[in-house]
Amino acid sequence: MLIQFKLSNFRSFNEEQTLSMVAAGGRDKTHPDNFIAPETVGSAKFRLLKTAAIYGANASGKSNLIKALRAMRKFVLESATRMNEGDPVRCAAPFRLASESKTRPSTFEITVVIAQVRYVYGFSVTSQQVEEEQLVVHPAATSKGQCWFHRRFDVSAAKHQWEFSGPLNAFGKVLEERTRQNGLALSRGAEQNIAELRPLFLWLRDEAVVMDLSVEPIGFVLDIASQILKDPVFKERVERMVNEADLGLDAVVVEERQKATKDVLPTFDDSEETKEFSGFLAKMWSIQGEFGTNIRTTHKGSEPDLREEFNFFSDESKGTQRFFALTGTMLSALDNGGLIVADEFDCSMHPLLTRKLVELFNSKEANQRGAQLIFATHDVSLLNPALFRRDQLWIVEKNAAGASQLFSLHDFRPQPRTIEAFWRGYLAGRYGGIPKFGPMLENLKVR
Questions:
Q1: Total domain count for the chain?
Q2: How confident is the model at residue 290 (pLDDT cuts 50, 70, 90)?
């Protein structure tokens, strides 16, 4: 479970900003079901929230916040196995609207609870190397932490200085010798099968999912299709959600093919809309040499016994494809207590449908393992006190220097009342995070 995520000097973010899933203190007793059960977290002192929604004007930095988490996760997963000495560190992306920021490292830090153990892990990077990396572990959610390792680049010595403690004392020499300057010790330790580092690495790999729903969710769809082939119970649950979402589908059919040839690829019409996607699949086929999953849908006809088959990718709407991708991903998260972070959450889906997905995560009955959903959206219908607490609603906006800043409605002063229509205050500009139009759009004078 995510406690908080910090970032600084990454894309449109300059100074350190924090997205926290810890419920704010005070007298706000609304939505008790929106909290993760204390026994799951391991401490009643941590009231963690199940969901958070992020709002802001176009180009305010919402997507950059999610890209930061994706970049951190990707670097952890790949730095030991897919990078070589001298490769650039791609998650370094300094804020470019201030001269001093261009030479500072990008910094990321994540705090999570895994099996009632709290991990605080972070690193700072330039495009050439890791400047600093640290892992602090709290054996219980509220116990005093122990710094298991800390590395910092010493400019005068032109190398990293290392410190180890606790269970990593025995592995210090291995990590120091085998971790490249442009790689992470966490990644190398997991690759070396150091048991103490594996829980955090595996949580980032298996339980933290970052999605951008503005693009075709092909990879997620194929992953879900693969899981459907392996698990009949999961298949039944996915089909039930798809059927009950009123998408007009009678069934989703997933077939596995042992050896694929080019005729296995879905067929497309000649419209411009499908050319790019068709080219992607053809490229994927040529790289992998196989395309082992075929996905079709069936629809009921006007006659009682008529069933017509359609190709999932070329015939179904973008909203249907995204809902299918979300459905399978969400069911896995609810089963395992995972984290889903989604950009453009409302893309191509009806507002009532996205609301139901949020309610699913907030539900005490459906979400019993501490699964979390964080999403960026423009759907103001979700800005509703009947659905969210104030500390679950976040605003991103740029300051006068062009840097993104992040705050929740709970932080805003004067604080919104728990019964007021949040969407109305947001659209009126009370909380910030809305566009500031020039005369052409504000006054509607184009001549």
A1: 2
A2: very low
